Amino acid sequence: MPVDHYENFPVASLLVPPRLRKPIEAIYRFARSADDIADEGDATPEERLAGLAAYRAELDRIAAGAEPQTPLFAALAEVITAHALPIQLFRDLLDAFAQDVVKKRYADYPELLDYCRRSANPVGRLVLHLFGRTEDIHLMQSDCICTALQLINFWQDVAIDWQKDRVYIPQTDFPHFHVSEADIAASRWSPNWAALMDFEIDRATTLMQRGAPLVHALPGRLGWEIRLTVQGGLRILERLRRVRGDMFTRRPTLGKRDWLVLAGRSLTM
Predict the structure, then answer these.
(1) Phi and psi (nearest 5°) for 255?
(2) Phi, psi of 226 (to 5 degrees)
(3) In sequence order, which residues have a C-beta less than 8 Å from that of residue 268 and are 6 or more positions away?
(4) How far apart are CA 203 and CA 208, in angstroms?
(5) CA-to-CA distance for 149 and 250, rounded, in angstroms?
(6) What average pLDDT does this structure show over 197-217?
(7) Separation between Cα atoms, residue 267 and residue 165, nearest integer Å
């Protein structure tokens, strides 16, 4: 099924040590396929939740030491066992995907951060477990990067998410800037909307900068992978700020020329 996904983490690229590409691919297949159950196609909410429940049952089998019933989970079980990965991180992802099926709005920023804690942060933590770097400071920095990437995706895709009846901008932020969901529905840009988006961009930028020192604690090629990931996220935020938050008509993306910029900036981190 061809789906245009924005990835929040590196997926077995050439910069990742060869011995860890298959484990990362197994984690990615789990996360991607579960996300698709929750978000793609024309299944009913009940069917989506049932599909995610089946995934949760497979995780329970792995936790109990039983044989998984599908090839996807058989491969994942090998990775979990070989690298002592916490199964709760996989369960957190499923909880977030199930939440996407039934929850379309977030009351405030802490509530949105709790969603990111389960929807994005587990993957970064799993990668750190693969590399054996699970010190508290490094887990915190990874969480900051992953949450920032998730927020960047939300700000970049405000108009796209509206088509799915989803709004990730915290509801408490709208009245503060004298805008509303009606502005999203009408694809209506205004100086007030730009001010709201500057506020959200600042939040994501602060998180990314707080997490960026993680690159210095990671082994060579993974460190470079994360450098590019961090710089890519910051570049999207720059583009979004440059168009004054008008993702309705000028949704920011990265092109081939941007990768030269990212590479150059990665050298100075």
Answers:
(1) -110, 180
(2) -70, -35
(3) none
(4) 9
(5) 19
(6) 96
(7) 41
| Residue entry with tokens 């990775």 | 79
pLDDT of residue 4: 39
Q: Which pLDDT value is given to residue 176?
A: 97
Tokens of 159: 């108009």
Question: In this structure, are 110 and 239 located in the same domain?
Answer: yes
Q: Per the domain annotation, does 86 fall within a domain?
A: yes
Q: Does residue 253 sit within a domain?
A: yes
Label residue 14 exposed, middle or buried (CB < 10 Å: 0-12, 13-18, 19+). exposed
Chain segment 68-124, per-residue pLDDT in tens: 999 999 999 999 999 999 999 999 999 999 999 999 999 999 999 999 999 999 999
177 and 75 in a common domain: no
- Specify whether 110 is located in the same domain as 72: no
Do 168 and 113 reside in the same domain of the chain? Answer: yes
Residues 74 and 154 in one domain: no
pLDDT digits (tens, 9 = 90+) for 60-74: 999 999 999 999 999
| Mean of per-residue pLDDT scores for the chain | 91
* Furthest C-alpha separation in the chain: 58
C-alpha distances in Å from residue 175, one per residue of 169, 171, 192, 261: 12, 8, 10, 37
Residue 83: domain span: 17-102
Nearest Cα neighbor of 112 from 91, 128, 96, 94 is 96
- Whether residue 23 is contained in a domain is answered as yes
Is residue 221 within 8 A of residue 255, CB to CB? The reply is: no
